[in-house]
Protein: histidine kinase
Amino acid sequence: VDHRAKNALALAQSIVRLTRAQNVTAYVRAVEGRITALARVHTVLSLSSWQGAEIRRLVTEEIAPYSEAGQIQIDGAEVQLQPATAQTLALALHELVTNSAKYGSLSVLPGRLAITWEVQDETLILAWVESGGPPVTKPKQKGFG
Structure:
């Protein structure tokens, strides 16, 4: 348990250091969202005694706040992920869904998001396809998410 706690704190420390925002309020919101995503995946992992996490559960947990409008479709085989992979993927999914809700297809009602995954030759391939969203514009700055 001690090494898990140290790893979680190291991840939280990295989140705090790498997060950039326009103002304090936006910074706090971004850090809280990322740490909450980390807490969600830790809950999922603890339910399996840290044996792993099923990818559908991770995806479902991250899209839950945005799934009411019926804009999101998920599909994929049952895939059990190792704890470290689950944590990394959960944080990546959090960034993707947050960006989609702010700037992408989930920011407008006609927008759609399809998340699919499969395993090929022991490699997980995840596809994140947005459609019907606003026009894509070049970012004004580089950031963590």
